[in-house]
Fold each of these.
Amino acid sequence: MRTADPTQRPRLVVLDFDGTFTDVEAEAGPFYEAFHEDARAILGDYEAEWARAQATIAEDPGMHGWLHDGRIVAPGDADPYLRATVIMNMILDERGMLTDLDERTAVLQKLYFDNYPKADTVFRPEAKEVVEALLASDVPVWVVTNSATRHVQEKIDRLDPKGREALHVIGDARKFIVTDPATPDPRFDGIPATVQLDDLARPIYPRRGHYFEVLRGVWNDTGTKPEETLVAGDIFELDLMLPALLGSEVMLVTKPRTADFEKTGCAALERGSVTDDLHAVLARLG
Ligand SMILES: [Mg+2]
């Protein structure tokens, strides 16, 4: 599958949004405040449990991850939004509350979607310059994110990059769902059920069928192929593992809390690299 020339210039750039364009830790204050208020309505007093769970996650974010449908699908410390959900799951487990998983997922998704819009908008310092330069290039740039399209659009409006109208945004990509795509695809058939990384004691599950459908739509729209695509994101198994296995070049854009296994896992890929600066994306367009 990975026969593309590693030096070739990408013909499509796909970017994640939260944590990739933005400084997620810096913008999360008001999100947490509102989230805590809603959580208190469900849990009553829970501050000590929250602090305990947060410390447990920080010790081993790879193993205390975002659990979806019985599988860990992302590290628990990957961003404040994820961390809040993981902590809530740990508290609910401890208390034996909301044991019906569908019901629990609905409650946690509502907490997330209700409060995500209350977060500040804090962009990475280089975001505007890099996005403007990308938009000025001849390569199409698409944002593919789990967050709601409208909220991400609003944030990008605030960034107000030159060439904004050329920036495509697809939200609700549900990169966390391990499933087959609605329409089968031989490219997806070749994706293994699990991948084992050297520095992580659990498997990664790359068969993210909804994410695949979104990416396939972008490839169809742009007339490009996976191996002609550069995907940049801040969470290895959510943003990058699937496109990497499909043959895309991938770039992990790190934050201070990026887990070590993500960096070593991405760097070990044939077409993977690790950076803490979005200029690296631009550099690939020459
Ligand atoms: Mg992200």
Amino acid sequence: MKLKLHQITKHFGDHVVLDNVSLSFEKVNTLVFIGPSGGGKSTLLRVIAGLEYPEAGEVEIDGEKVAFTEDGLLKHRRTIGVVFQAFNLFPHLTALQNITLPLEKVHGVPPAEARDTAQQILKRLQLDKHSQKKPAELSGGQRQRVAIARAISIKPRLLLLDEPTSALDPEMTAEVLDVIEELRAEGLDFILVTHEMGFARLVADQVAVIADGRIVEAGTVDQVFKNPVSQQSRDFLAKVLKY
Ligand SMILES: Nc1ncnc2c1ncn2[C@@H]1O[C@H](COP(=O)(O)OP(=O)(O)OP(=O)(O)O)[C@@H](O)[C@H]1O
Ligand SMILES: [Mg+2]
């Protein structure tokens, strides 16, 4: 995708959470945001998803500006898959229903077709045996895969993931990362926030380090991990790469 974030500013009360954030790529397939806790990564992802209004600035994807109006955002959100922790699965619905319900109600897909799509995707993510289980009956990794299945069921042009592997043990993390790696290889575009530096290095073609509401560093994996230029990203990387 072609991506342009232009002078995005967002406050919560008098706290500046995103401070004039600009970032532009002619072509990027997997963009990864890293940086210290509280820096603004999730907020920026939510602005890109059209879930949060910035006070100023523009988001442009493939040459199309996101209109931060009610109608504009509805249209935008339909084209983007999101897996955020705040977007938990519906607890009273089965894995299958968690996928078919939004397809039917939000995207107007006929029930039989929604069911076919959901079954195919569950199978592909090796969840077919679990399609009738409710979230509480699934493991953390399975739940996260259902959330990914739901996000890709709408055939998004872009998938946004906020810490898809937090709260997972190493084996479940590997399961989820495998799925992401596979979708990436198929050409789906991603913007993701992760604390897994190994994964960031593996999948990212561009990395942005966000601290104190600003992009303090952006570039390829090699540039950012091997030759960070800003002191803030050096400090951050020194800390997280120590262990
Ligand atoms: N709805 C909100 N109301 C008020 N403040 C908020 C809100 N959401 C986020 N913030 C504040 O904005 C700042 C950035 O938060 P954000 O969640 O974007 O950080 P983050 O980089 O994702 O951090 P983490 O790595 O811990 O997830 C934080 O100081 C946070 O307290
Ligand atoms: Mg966050």
Amino acid sequence: MNRKYKIASLFSGCGGLDLGFIQAGFEVVWANDFFKEAVETYKANIGNHIVYGDITQIASSGIPDNFDILLGGFPCQGFSVANTKRSMEDERNFLYLEMIRLIRDKQPKFFLAENVKGLLSMQKGKVIEMILNDFRELGYKVDYKLIKASEYGVPQHRERVVIIGNRLGLENPFPIKTHGEENTLYNNNNNNLKPFVSVKDVVGHLAEERPRVCSFDIDNKTIYNHNARTNVADKFWGRKHKVNQHEICDYLKYWRNKSGWSTKKIDEHFGYAHTAGHWFRKDNNSGSIPNPKDWWELKNILGFDDKYDKAVTELELKVIKFEQSLRINNWDRPSDTITATGPEIHPNKERRMSVRECAIIQTFPDDFIFKGSIGNMYKQIGNAVPVLLAHKIAIEIRRFLDNHNSEILKEKNGYRTIEENRKIREKVS
Ligand SMILES: C[S@@+](CC[C@H](N)C(=O)[O-])C[C@H]1O[C@@H](n2cnc3c(N)ncnc32)[C@H](O)[C@@H]1O
């Protein structure tokens, strides 16, 4: 089917999520955000249908009817489920209630909400439960999934919760993983996944390019926004005490053997792919000490004593020197999450990753040009859903909508008059 399904988009930012859907053939008819520079970027690259303003101040009557999908990555600061008597007049003014309002008022076929992983653990899972229930009460079939962008070809281990709902009675579609760890002699992931895309794969060509505000050409391609912050001394939370990795490794191995847990089972418990192995590897190049959060969880499952608790878990704020920063970015692996607050330091240059490099890691196209101050550009990019991930989700939803529509037509054709069929076609278009 060649029909363009229509989208309304809340909390659109600079448009990462929207762009992925547009690339999959959807049409965004209305979008909104109150982040001025993000709106400027959106207008310059996607379209003038974005309305600048606070969504809580925009009446449903001011938003078009008859869209098929509502998109929105609602912010989730300040959630509390203490007050269980919720209503639309709720003084806590949760922003996801704006999605609820529009779903109730406009009845789209699908909705999709995106959020940070932390949403799942907020108030011991009560927040996500509350949100899902509120969506379900509108009569939608709702599912959610924690999605790791790197497993869909994005060069970034970004994890996000994707909530999808539909009122067509369909199973909610989620994309299938396409990428994973490369098979090696020791690690055979036994599937047909392509290897993760690394940072070097996508931004290696910019490593030797001096950052600058103006655009320039390399290999007949114009590079925009390759400007970068050059403050490479910063602070980070580091271990307060000197800890010997070999000692910790021996200690953890002893407790692991005693408890009967295998490394694989520990990884599964944490939801990691190949991290626990490093805790039991006595090797300065690839062995590592668990971070405090993982340490406490490890203690829960292996039941070890308090001997190293203090040494491993006490942190202090330290100043990063450039040399230390060399290890911050994963050059040969997918990057850590590109955040809205400030990018990582380039692995081999005395500068941070440029706006363009961050945009590329977030899978924005090369000709997508960001507007605003450098800080605001970094923020727009860090806030965004990787375009490629959005695209893959969009393709699945599109497939479901197409199948659903052709089923309706098939079912009805032949049993109805031409006039009735025309009405059905109108209904599904
Ligand atoms: C996580 S970002 C969304 C990013 C976007 N989905 C993308 O892929 O580029 C959340 C956005 O919600 C916007 N926002 C927060 N509160 C808002 C409000 N009351 N009205 C309109 N926009 C709001 C922020 O300005 C921010 O751009």
